[in-house]
Amino acid sequence: MSASSLATVVIVPFFGALLWVTPAITRPTLQFGVRIPGDRAGAPVIRRERRAYYWRTAAIGVCFTITAVLVQGHASWWLGRIILVLELAADLGCYQIARKNIAAVKNAEDWFAGLRQMVATDTSWRTDPPHFPVCWLLPALTVIAVTVIVGAVRYPDLPARMVVGFGGSSAGHQAPKSVVSVFALAVGQLYVTALWTGLMLIVYRSRPDIESADAASSTRRYRMYLAAFTRAVLTLIALVNLTLLLAALRTWQVYRLTGIASGLPLLPFIAGLLIIAIVAVRTGQGGSRLSAGSSGHASNALPRIGPARLSRVSPGPARDARLSRVGVGGGPSGGSKRASRLPGESPGQSPEGGADRDDDRFWKAGLIYVNRDDPAIMVGNRFGVGWTFNFANRTAWLVLAGIVAAPAGLAAIMAAAGL
Amino acid sequence: MLLSIEPDGPVPIYQQIRDRIVEAIADGAQPAGSGLPSIRQLAVDLGVNFHTVNKSYDLLRQEGLLRISRKSGAVVQRDPGSGPPDPGWVRDWTGRARTLLAEAAAQGMSAQDIIHHSQAALADFSFPAGEGAA
């Protein structure tokens, strides 16, 4: 089994399992990309579509995994990619079926009728922003430094023509020794590190994914989610760099592996994917699966300015611990120290009849966010965890162009160097 | 401060943002000297146009409640502890309050109910010690 075959056999069931579990890690108020009021999360159509999705995607995952195992070693490397793409397309089809059916019932029954549709923000997100965990970037940078140092040490002893590329097998593509050919994988490490660090920095400047009806606790959960997810991504970067280092060591003839052992450099990458998947399942999208009470962050004592207040606080000097909610319509008011949902209250719906804004119209096919009035570059994913671009934003297109242009430029340089 | 608006509601968004910030100042959530997000940041966080937030901040600046500078950003300038307002402003506010009370009376609310609701609202505000709502 080659490294490529091993990657296919691992990644096909990995993505199958990830897409299978995705409805469970998405917010209860977002069912298959359809925004719903919190009290509709248990609607018959949703239960039925979730059950159907689980069965369909499980069957698809099993079929494609069996196919990937059967064809490994008997077909070209590209067949593995085709199997993966077909699996993703089939799962996407299941998602679209569920989305269409739920949206049809939602629109027919007008689920948002009579509900105030709110958007909430936590100003402390800007006045007391979360800090990017820079120290978690050190392992990735250390691996790059080790790669460059080992490459520089090995450079004089390398033959005039050397096997290049990730595979590194003796039958692989050969190229003349040069700085570009020797350090190509180190450049790849730099690209991966810069790309994901840059994207996470944009995410830190983006808006938090807050449930308007439960803003205080969902803000806390989002902070915890962002911290955990960022650390997982930075760990993944370090492990991807380690995989590239192991591949580079092989091209520099530091060690030699054959057969299934040639796939060993992939193990760090696979471990990184597992870490991301575990964090995603534990936190849920935007921290929706986290408990809000476990954070000691200052935003525990956030005042809330929003729909009608829930209870009273006495006026006077105790302004430090005040948590107040002020009515949009200037209704009867009072303060509320509301750390988590009240008994009987659904997520995404406040007891005053408010709900998260129905923003389905901005999501094309339930996956692509296009909102000209929204200045955000990135927003939380509609299905699954993570973030996506606002495709109506020019800066988002510039970032995307940079993501595509950088590897294209590197590829051009490598082609010019005979790689 | 948690700030929520109703984007598709009958009240213009800039007015809602302005009102929420005034309420936050009144109830002590945003005391004088405390910072607010920049126009750009608040627009991103609420998913609304920059100009909408700019209009809200500009209103607050004209009312003397907000100070906006390049160096320190948007900072609350007045709060319930900042002393009595300008007499001209009180005259203007009295006129608006009268209209608001007239709306309640015209809709049939009793004087007792109007006073009760006014007191309930005042109870949430953060007056300096000894000046609490009666």
Question: Your description of this structure?
Answer:
- The complex is a heterodimer of chains A (419) and B (134).
- Chain A has 419 residues and is mainly α.
- Chain A folds into 3 domains: 1-111, no CATH class; 112-124 and 305-358, no CATH class; 129-302, no CATH class.
- Chain A has 9 helices and 13 strands.
- Chain A has helices at 3-25, 44-71, 77-109, 124-127, 138-154, 179-205, 215-251, 267-283, 394-416, and strands spanning 30-31, 34-35, 116-122, 161-163, 174-176, 304-305, 324-325, 334-335, 354-356, 363-364, 368-369, 378-380, 387-389.
- In chain A, the strands form 6 sheets. Chain A has a two-stranded antiparallel sheet.
- Mean pLDDT of chain A is 82; it is low at 294-345.
- Helices cover 50% and strands 10% of the residues of chain B.
- Chain B has helices spanning 13-26, 39-46, 50-62, 87-106, 111-122; strands at 2-5, 35-36, 66-69, 73-76.
- The two termini of chain B are 27 Å apart.
- The chains are: A mainly alpha (419), B mainly alpha (134).
- Chains A and B meet through β3, α4, α7, β6 and β7 of A and β1, α1, β2, α2 and α5 of B.
- β3 (116-122) of chain A pairs antiparallel with β1 of chain B.
